[in-house]
Amino acid sequence: MLRENVPGFKNMRLTDGEIVEHYLIPARRFVQEGQPVAPGAMAGAFSR
C-alpha cells in the first residue's frame, strides 16, 4: 500500500520488513505513547 500511495516509497530500496521496522512501528509507538522511541530519533518526522 505505501509503495503505491506514498510518492517517496515507490523508488526506495527498502524491503517491506524494513519499512515496517523503521517507519510503521515507530509511527504506531508515537501515536500510542505520544513521544518518539529514542530521543531525537524520529522527532523531525512527526513535528509540524
What is the total number of structural domains?
A: 1
Largest sheet: none
Q: What is the H/E string?
A: HHH
What is the arithmetic mean of pLDDT?
75
Q: State the secondary-structure class.
A: mainly alpha
Number of helices: 3
Alpha-carbon Rg, integer? 12 Å
β-strand amount: under 5%
Overall geometric form: elongated
Q: What is the β-strand count?
A: 0
Euclidean distance between termini CA atoms: 24 Å
Helix coverage percent: 40-55%
**Uncertain spans:** none
Keywords:
mainly alpha; 48 residues
Structure in a nutshell:
The protein is an all-alpha fold and 48 residues long. The protein has helices spanning 2-5, 16-33, 43-46.
Provide structural commentary.
It is built from three helices and no strands. It has one domain (2-46). It starts with a helix and ends with a helix. By secondary structure, it is mostly helical. The radius of gyration is 12 Å and the shape is elongated. Helices cover 54% and strands 0% of the residues.
Task: Break the fold down into its secondary structure elements and pairings.
Layout: H1 2-5, H2 16-33, H3 43-46
